[in-house]
Each structure stands twice: as structure tokens, then as C-alpha cells.
Amino acid sequence: MRSGAKVAVIGGAFVLVAGGIGYGAYSVLGDEGGGGAGTQSASESSEVKTGPPSAEEIAETSKGFFEAWAAGDASAAALLTNNESGAKPVLASYGEDAHIGKVKITPGPAVGTKVPYTVKATVAYEGKSKPISYASELTVVRGLTTGKALVDWEPTVVHPQLTEGATLKTGESSAPAIEAVDHNGTVLTKEKYPSLGPILDTLRQKYGETSGGSAGIETWIEPADESQPDVSLLTLAKGKPGKVQTTLDAGAQAAAEQAVKKYAQASVVAVKPSTGAIRAVANNPVTEFNVALQGKQAPGSTLKIMTAALLLEKGLVTANGAAECPKDAMYQSRSFHNLDNFGLPDGSTFTQSFAKSCNTAFIKLIDDTKDDAALSKMARDVFGIGLDWKTGVVTTDGSVPEEAGGEAAAQYIGQGTVQMNALNMASITATAMTGTFTQPVIVPQSLDDRELARASRSLSASVSQQLKTMMRATAAWGTGAKAMAGVGGDKGAKTGSAEVDGQDTSNSWFTGFSNDLAAAAVVQTGGHGGDAAGPVVAEVLRAGG
After folding, report:
1. In 382-421, where does DSSP find H-type helix?
2. Cβ neighbour number for residue 26 with a 10 Å cutoff
3. Residue in 14, 5, 40, 28 with CA at minimum distance from that of residue 166
4. Quick count: other Cβ atoms within 10 Å of Cβ 51?
5. Is 23 helix (H, G, I), strand (E, B) or coil?
6. DSSP one-letter code for 70
């Protein structure tokens, strides 16, 4: 959910009175931002309560708030919050703009100062009506100046998906509904493919009016940020959906959805290298912020695909040539080491260093590039990183900023200031396979004739071939072998473990290819790349697409 609010469904109903409610001591002026300006006598002022609200106060305040809200008395309900001016318009719009009535609120037992509850109501608009129900929670706090127990105002109090500045509305749809289909014509729904929910909302907002559909009557959340899509909550009368073609593949998407569910926080993206078609996007948990497409994290050693391309292009190494891999290496007073402090024997090849993910083999060659900005230029000019991608939905397109010294060295192994997401890494793998950046898309360019990003040059055939050789070795006998064992076809991989400040366990990254499909995944605090993210990628690659 956009708000990230916790929800619960607990019994313990009370009977609501739809009018003539007595608020007693709780009919006070709201404490704006916790401060408030309630009128008090001198004697009362000297007896302002402090400390957490008591169980009795929590019960009384929440009961009064629920009753006023259910009765449609926005003014009275807002007075029982610590932000009257913020709460009143939102509570008023509940009935006036969203046309929600016959409200019944069922609270559960308080957990500390939090009170969970369920809301059951009816949306009625132009002769059509439908029930709506959901769960949320509120917190009771003490007003800073009045000492009164008050509801800590957040938009999520009214609906768990309501964000600051957003509004609830009911009426003719802001955009006609769409029927999104995959590249084979299979219908894609957020019910069957939950990770596609935010994507489908965006596609509807962007292409609904031009896809041949007609608007229906709905209840929706309209976000404050106009660039964000509306969130549909309820359909009272269906319009005619317009068809929107996507590049997704239902089989690969289903596999991706299943794969990420195995971890508390995981993302995966699959791309078809020959065309740039995005075949699958999945996240767990599913939120309005699409981590797979919009995340910004250090990708660890998966970025060595790009670093290797740089070193190969400059002629500093060859796939089968010797490359030193000591246990540790120093660069401009900054020490770097390999995982578990391993090293490779003298005479080992660059392919062996790549397949075993040797950090020091890469660090030792930085000076020889004679350009601290070389990796940043390679990222932009060859791999399309940092360009303005026009995929059809909102994406973050990676970043390898120009750095110097030890920070530049950290970038060579995917640490430091490098920022990537699963989409970026899948695209980097795709570019390594074909030698040329093809901007990923989730809807065909022909849908709106948008201008796609283009890199200024390609890799040579020799460099691309050597990259594939090294990735094949990683999948065959290197750090990706276990994860890729069950993947068929022409296959390759690269693992990564990204260290994050404040985390005891590194993030697990993995990217790989099988025939004409590339995929990349990240699992938060998943450890070694092959252990967590590897199986996610393998599952998607096995599904094809």
C-alpha cells in the first residue's frame, strides 16, 4: 500500500449513533500538529495531564471519533484529532466527494495506544450503490498544550492507502479502464499478477483515453502528485475497457511473482535482449513504489560485467589472459579484499577471476585505465545508464557518477556511489549479450511514438563475445553454477553481494541469461548472490518468454 499502514481485522463492535452525540470533555479545539489551542481556565491549565494516554482515555477518544466520523460530522471528528485543520477537509470529503455513507466502524482491542478497526460502508452515486469495506488503525496521543487525549491525525486514519494531500473521489472514472494483454494476447490483471498493480494503474492513466475505452463510475484515490496514477478502489458501473498491448509475458510474470514470494524483500526483472521487451517485473512486497523499476542500490559484483567490458575494451585484459587475484589490494590508501579473503594462484585467467568474483583483479587495473571517469563514461555511452529511458512507466535508469580515488575503485566492484535496480542490471546483461544497448520497454514504442534512449556507441564484437564467455563460465563452474544448474540453453550469469552500511548481511544480487532472455534480481539481506537472488533469476529464466 502507498501509505505502508499496518492493517488488522478484529471484532468488538459497538452500536453507532447517527446523530445527537455528546462529546463531553472531548469536544475541544484540536491540537494543531500536537500543539493545539484549546481554551482552558487557570485552574485547568495547572492540571494539564502529561504522559501516555490511559486505556480509558484511548477508549473514550477513539469511540467519540468513530461516532462522529460514522455520523458524517467532520467538524466534531476533526476536533478530536491533533490536527483539526488537516483532518476536517479529508473527513468532509469522505461523504461529499467520495459519496460514502451508512458507515459502520468496528474497533478491536487497543494495542498500546493503537486502535485497529474495520470500516463497512456504502458508496452511492447517481442511483448506483455498492458496499465498501477495509481495515486500518489509529493512534491516540496526548495533546501537547491541552493535555487531552486526541487522535494522532494521518490520512491513513480514513483509508489505509490515503496519502498526504490525496483525496477520495467517486464519479465518472478519471480515465477509462484498460484491458492490458501480454505479447501473446493473454489478459493481465492485478488480481492474478499482484506486482503488476502499480504498472497497470500507470498504463491506465497514461493510455486509457487513447485505447478505445469509455469511462465507468468508480471510487478512487487521487494522489497529490499528478504524475502518480489514481488508485481505483471500487467500480460501481463498468465502462468499456480499452485494450493496451504490453511486452510482458504471462508465463514469465507468473514465475517471477512466485519466485519473489520466497523472500521478505525481493525484486526481479526479465528483458528480451534482442528487442528490449520487458517480459516480467515482480516485487515482494508489492507497493506503489516499484522497487524493481525505481530502486537505487549498489549492485555489488554484478556490475563487474560493465567493469570487465571497460578493461577488455582498453586491452588491459583478455578473457583467457592472466590476471592477478591476490587476497587483498590497496588503492589510494583504501584497502579492498575478496569475499572470505580468498585468492587465486599465479597464472589464473581473467575469466577465472570473473567467474569466482575476485575483487582485487579489478582493483589492481584501475590505474592502467588512466581515467577515473572511464567507468562512468562506459556506463552512459555504451550501456545507456543514466539516460532518460521511456519504457512506458516510471523508471529510475541507473547512475555511475564520476568519482576519483578510493570511491572510483569501489565503483569497479559495484559499491560506493553506484546506484542500480533489477531493471538496470537486466539491461546491462542484455547489452553485454548483444553488444548494443536497446532501451527496455514495457509497451511498444508504436503505441505513442515516444523517443527511446540511445547509447552513443556499441561494444566491439570481440568484447561482447569475451563477456559472454566469462558469464558462461560463471554459470558453468563459477559462483553462479548452483543457481543456474537447472537452466537450459545458452546460459551465463554473474553474482553479487552488496555491502550496505548498517546491515549485518549483504544484499544478494544475481543476473543471468538463457538464450534470448536476460533477468536480474536483488534480495535484501540475502547474503551471497548465488544463494538468494540466483534461484529467483533461474526460476524466471526457466519460464522463458
Report:
1. 405-412
2. 19
3. 5
4. 7
5. coil
6. H
Grid cell, residue 541, equals: 529464466
How far are the Cα atoms of 78, 83, 156, 435 from residue 541, in angstroms, in the given order?
53, 51, 39, 20
Q: Running along the chain, 545 residues long, what does each successive block of 10 average in pLDDT?
A: 33 33 30 39 61 95 97 97 96 96 96 97 95 97 92 97 94 88 97 96 91 90 87 90 96 98 97 98 95 97 97 96 89 80 88 94 86 92 97 97 88 94 98 98 95 98 97 98 97 94 91 98 95 98 91
Q: Are 375 and 408 in contact (CB under 8 A)?
A: yes
Residue 521: in which H helix or E strand, if any?
strand 517-523
| DSSP-assigned beta bridge partners for residue 167 | 222
User: ∠ CA(187), CA(192), CA(193), 5° rounding?
Assistant: 90
Of the candidates 354, 343, 350, the one whose C-alpha atom is nearest the C-alpha of residue 322 is: 350
Q: DSSP readout, 448-473?
A: TTPPPP--S----HHHHHHHHHHHHH
**Which phi-psi region, left, alpha or beta, contains residue 523 (left: φ > 0; alpha: ψ -120 to 50)?**
beta
Candidates 357, 376, 385, 397; CA nearest to 494 is 357
What are the DSSP calls for 143-167, one per residue?
-TTT--EEE---GGGT-TT--TT-E
Closest to 305 measured CA to CA, from 429, 433, 398, 476 = 429
Note whether 341 and 358 are within 8 A (CB): no
User: What pTM was computed for the model?
Assistant: 0.76
* Torsion angle of C-alpha atoms 526, 421, 470, 499, degrees rounded to 10: -40
Give the span between the Cα atoms of 450 and 438, in whole angstroms: 14
One-letter amino acid at 191 equals E
68 torsion bin: left (phi>0), alpha (psi -120 to 50), beta (else):
alpha
Helix (H, G, I), strand (E, B) or coil at 168: strand
Q: Residue 217's Cα: distance from chain center in Å? A: 29
- Count of Cβ atoms closer than 10 Å to residue 359 Cβ: 25
Task: Name residues whose C-beta falls within 8 Å of residue 476's C-beta, 6 or more positions apart in sequence.
Answer: none
Kindly tell me the number of DSSP H helices and DSSP E strands found in the chain.
Answer: 17, 16
DSSP 241: P
DSSP 284-306: ES--SS-HHHH--B--GGGGHHH
Output the nine-digit C-alpha cell for 409.
575503485
Q: How far apart are CA 124 and CA 120, in angstroms?
A: 13
CA torsion sign for 415, 417, 421, 422 is negative
For residue 319, the one-letter residue type is A
Q: How far apart are CA 112 and CA 54, in angstroms?
A: 9
How many angstroms separate the CA atoms of 309 and 317, rounded? 10
- Between the two ends of the chain, the Cα-to-Cα distance in Å is 29
